[in-house]
Design brief:
- The protein has 416 residues and is mostly helical.
- The chain has three domains: 49 residues, no CATH class; 198 residues, Clc chloride channel; 131 residues, CBS-domain (Roll), CATH 3.10.580.
- Helices cover 56% and strands 6% of the residues.
- The strands form two sheets. The chain has a three-stranded mixed sheet. Strands 4-5 form a two-stranded antiparallel sheet.
């Protein structure tokens, strides 16, 4: 992408928003280095500078940003329509009573008929993009290209034929933006550029990529804010209209779950002190084994593991119901104290400042269902974290993501 379009920043953003599925140095740095190397080599292989150099010198009024956002809404609706049609046509191919190997042949025939109607709809289409930005096309030609190019692109991809996405999206958004721009103030090529960026950002669910790509494509930094308004608006529309993007829908149909949203891990942000149980049931280190066996024999005792603490509250060990059952078989142990039977060296314990993620990892590595939380200075037992406490944290995050409340409306009794 960097070598062909001369857009290193947009290429890196494309990797971040679409391809990496994470935002970590191990992924970002190699991609950024690759883009930098490519842009350094590009002048020796291609022409230097933007692929479609253009300066629009647009002087929009203060309310002009609203028109740019409206262009984003139109592009978002166009994106939703094309995505829906693509998979509707694909379903039609699935319903054909012929072997799938004939589908590309049918798609090829359709593309050929489209080429007879509008030959310029065939090919990559860089000349069309240049014509839209520089206003060298007539309205009937732009409308014909938009309709024919959309039709043959939809059928080609639906039939299983390999085809590009980036350049067609630029043509679709640019053609519609250019036609609408005839009725808007300023250069129609400017509105075509907004349509290109919005169509790309909304359809691919990559608004920052669409914004920077349009800037690097033309070299006009002055259109950055209008582009951002259009792409973000288109992105919002497509998110509301469609569950998945045009790029991930096919993967989802094959049974693969793809997530594109980067979220905050609550287990890495939450400290143990925030979720631990502070009022912990404990056993005294002075308790004898016989007393402990009698304690566990009581039906009202529900916990499987209990911490053992001394007179100062320091953690001495853990005792489980299974251990008590074993001790019942050995009467010679009944007079020994619990602190002689357990060792604090193997206690899977955490500190109040440790993260919930660390506690979860400790549970997995030790196969323990309850982790004591110990003060690192005094070794006293501060609390306890069980599996249900970690699940409760996950439930809280889930509720925050799924619950929706009206922003406007009367206040309720609880002040919301």
């Amino acid at each position: 992408m960097t070598a062909i379009f001369g857009s290193p920043v947009a290429a890196v953003m494309l990797a971040v928003e679409l391809l990496l599925f994470e935002w970590k140095p191990r992924s970002f740095i190699p991609v950024a280095i690759a883009a930098c190397v490519s842009i350094c080599w590009r002048p020796f292989l291609f022409e230097a500078g933007p692929l479609f150099p253009k300066q629009f010198h647009m002087d929009l009024p203060w309310w002009g940003i609203g028109i740019c956002a409206a262009m984003g809404i139109v592009a978002g609706l166009q994106s939703g329509l094309l995505t829906t049609l693509l998979y509707k046509i694909e379903d039609l191919f699935e319903a054909l009573p012929i072997h799938w190997m004939w589908w590309p042949a049918i798609g090829g025939l359709f593309i050929g008929f489209g080429g007879l109607i509008e030959p310029r709809a065939l090919g990559v289409g860089y000349d069309i993009i240049d014509g839209l930005l520089n206003n060298t096309l007539l309205p009937p030609a732009v409308l014909a290209i938009l309709l024919v190019k959309s039709a043959i692109w939809l059928v080609a991809l639906s039939s299983g034929t390999s085809g590009g996405v980036l350049a067609p999206l630029l043509i679709f958004g640019g053609a519609l933006g250019w036609l609408i721009g005839l009725a808007l103030p300023g250069d129609p090529g400017f509105w075509a550029l907004l349509g290109m960026a919005a169509m790309m950002g909304g359809t691919m669910r990559a608004p920052l990529t669409g914004t920077f790509f349009a800037v690097e494509l033309t070299g006009d930094i002055s259109v950055l804010v209008p582009l951002l308004a259009a792409t973000v608006t288109a992105y919002a529309v497509t998110v509301l209209l469609l569950r998945r993007s045009i790029l991930t829908e096919k993967i989802a149909r094959r049974g693969q779950h793809i997530t594109r949203e980067y979220g905050i891990d609550p287990f890495e942000l939450t400290r143990a002190r925030d979720i631990m149980i502070k009022d912990v049931d404990t056993l005294s280190a002075r308790m004898t084994v016989g007393e402990a066996c009698a304690f566990f024999a009581t039906t009202s005792r529900t916990h499987r593991v209990y911490p053992i603490v001394d007179q100062e509250g320091a953690l001495k060990g853990l005792v489980s119901r299974a251990e008590a059952l074993q001790w019942q078989q050995e009467a010679v142990l009944f007079d020994q104290r619990l602190d002689d039977m357990v060792s604090d060296a193997s206690i899977p314990a955490a500190h109040p400042d440790d993260t919930a993620g660390y506690v979860a990892d400790l549970m997995l590595s030790t196969d323990a269902g309850r982790i004591p939380i110990v003060d690192p200075q005094t070794a006293k037992l501060d609390g306890l974290i069980a599996r249900k406490d970690l699940l409760r944290l996950r439930r809280t995050l889930r509720a925050a993501e799924t619950e929706r409340k009206p922003f406007l409306g009367p206040r309720t009794a609880d002040g919301e």
